[in-house]
Amino acid sequence: MxxxxxxxCLVLALTPSLAWSQAELPxxxxxxxxxxxxxxxxxxxxxxVFALARAAARExxxxxxxxxxxxxxxxxxxxxxxRRLPGFRVGTAKALYVIVxxxxxxxxxxxxxxxxxxxxxxxxxxxYNGSASRLYVDRITDVTACYHMGSREFIKLYRGxxxxxxxxxRAYVETVNEELQxxxxxxxxxxxxCSSREVVDAGFEAFLKVFPxxxxxxxxxxxxxxxxxxxxxxxxxxxxxLNLGDPIPYGMxxxxxxx
Length: 259
Description:
By secondary structure, the chain is mainly alpha-helical. It folds into two domains: 1-103, no CATH class; 133-247, no CATH class.
């Protein structure tokens, strides 16, 4: 019951901000109202409320960027924006972002959603694990990161998203396509690899073996050939110049500091 009480309090606590946000952030207002109605209703599919959430996130990011530009120009912003959006992580410092909080929506799906919702948000949570970065991305600084291209976890996620799209082609289309495009862009365009040349080479080989019919297969093979020819443009063990050490393998605890 404590969890249910906290969820209800979250929605109620955000309600007062609707008075001013209706004019300046209409998508936020629509999302918070939709979330309140969904929470108080009988449950069922979350696709409608999540579509409202995505629209509010896009609006929030536009507001954050506009606020930052105005301040950078030495002006006082005339429009207000909220630093918090339920279900999302909002970055307003060096890195400007509005990224889904996978844990928030997974818990909502487990309490109110249907089987398809739970499947989608379990996969989304595997991808983000409640953080502001995808599992296959290691942050180096606030605005830079390295990528685990073709790693075991990467391949597992790509399989999960491709299977979800094949089995449920009309469900959560924007989210599914966004995650697949992000992974495909990583394989084809990322230039900062967390691992060594040998590990990245093996990852590309594994991707081609597991997904022989992938639409990006020919481009992945071309990039693998450029890796062999030392013309890929990829920096291997990226971030080593910052003395970060080797990336900690997924699933392992970081070493404890020396006494």
